[in-house]
From TrEMBL:
Classification via InterPro entries: FA_synthesis (IPR003664), Phospholipid_synth_PlsX-like (IPR012281)
Name of this chain's protein: Phosphate acyltransferase
NCBIfam families documented for this protein: plsX
The reaction(s) this protein catalyses: a fatty acyl-[ACP] + phosphate = an acyl phosphate + holo-[ACP]
Organism encoding this protein: Melghirimyces algeriensis
Major location (coarse): cytoplasm
Length: 332
């Protein structure tokens, strides 16, 4: 198995990417890892000796976080993101991971790696934390701001297959994000999607309200990209605000500091359960090969877990499963 990583993407690149890659190379000696990036920058971080299963593919271009995605992908054909997606398309890599420009990765994934037959639009599918520690796979969170019922139907199918084969959920419960749990609620989009999804050979639990997501009422949550992106950013903002306020309150005086010391083990476990770094990255489902978007703020642990996720993605041959089911759905 050969996995390529974008060494130039992310807030802590290339250091965090290189360090995570080194740990992954040691952890999985049966897997080859390829770092795509600026040669001198990477070599200064790699050290000697290198693991036998780690190589470097020099590139002279990379896409910055503030660049317009489609234009950057078209202009920078030799960038780390475009090269990585091309390696997957040409089967020179079994999977590609990037913590870089999300829009550029989605554009390159669609334009360079290509969509599966029967899938109209790929979906970005990160894991959201839940209070039971299991998490919920949410798709789409921004690959496609607008959607039709048939797209949500495809998301439900892809999400169920990925959750079962990669995340290890047994008969994953699939929910449709809506403003009420009753059948018939919502917009024309959600009503149409409900009718299509309930006919799929998956465990569909119906409509799910956003207030119940943290309770773990489903394993896969389906929504359009606009709604999913708002949900993602609001969740991140609320979590950041709560943790900041909690830290402030627990350091207010000697008594609260004592309470903090007592609560510290439990709080550390809670923070770990709610930490994106524990989940690795978000697959871009619906492409002809495994492409994983790691969080922009990924550190060494997040990169290691993204490699773990991509490895399982390849091992379980999820692309073939999605392709088979989507074509059957298309013939429908």
């Amino acid at each position: 198995m050969r996995i390529a990583l974008d060494a130039m993407g992310g807030d802590h690149a290339p250091k965090a990417i290189v360090e995570g890659c080194l740990e992954a190379a040691q952890k999985w000696p049966d897997m080859e890892l390829v770092l795509l990036g600026h040669e001198q920058s990477i070599r200064s971080l790699l050290g000697q000796p290198l693991p036998d299963n780690l190589t470097m593919h020099p590139v002279e271009e990379w896409i910055e976080a503030d660049e317009e995605p489609v234009r950057a992908v078209r202009r920078k054909k030799g960038s780390s993101i475009v090269v990585g997606c091309r390696m997957v398309r040409e089967q020179k890599a079994d999977a590609f991971i990037s913590a870089g420009n999300t829009g550029a990765l989605m554009a390159a994934g669609t334009m360079v790696t290509g969509r599966l037959s029967g899938i109209d639009r790929p979906a970005l599918a990160p894991m959201f934390p839940t209070l039971d520690g299991k998490g919920v796979l949410v798709l789409d969170v921004g690959a496609n701001p607008e959607a039709k019922p048939v797209h949500l139907e495809q998301y439900a199918l892809m999400g169920a297959l990925y959750a079962e084969n990669v995340l290890g959920f047994d008969k994953p419960r699939v929910g449709l994000l809506n403003i009420g749990t009753e059948e018939g609620k919502g917009t024309a989009l959600t009503k149409g999607a409900f009718e299509l999804i309930k006919k799929l050979p998956i465990h569909f639990v119906g409509n799910v309200e956003s207030r119940d997501i943290l309770q773990g009422v489903c394993d896969v949550l389906v929504c359009d990209g606009f709604t999913g992106n708002v949900l993602l950013k609001n969740t991140e903002g609320v979590a950041k605000g709560i943790f900041a306020r909690l830290k402030e309150e627990l350091s207010r005086n000697a008594f609260t500091k004592l309470a903090a010391a007592i609560l510290k083990p439990g709080l550390k476990r809670f923070v770990k359960d709610m930490d994106y770094k524990e989940h690795g990255g978000a697959p871009l489902l619906g492409l002809k090969g495994p492409v994983v978007k790691a969080h922009g703020s990924s550190d060494t642990l997040a990169v290691l877990n993204a490699v773990r996720q991509a490895r399982r993605f390849v091992e379980r041959d999820v692309i073939s499963a999605i392709s088979k089911e989507s074509q059957r759905l298309e013939r429908g």
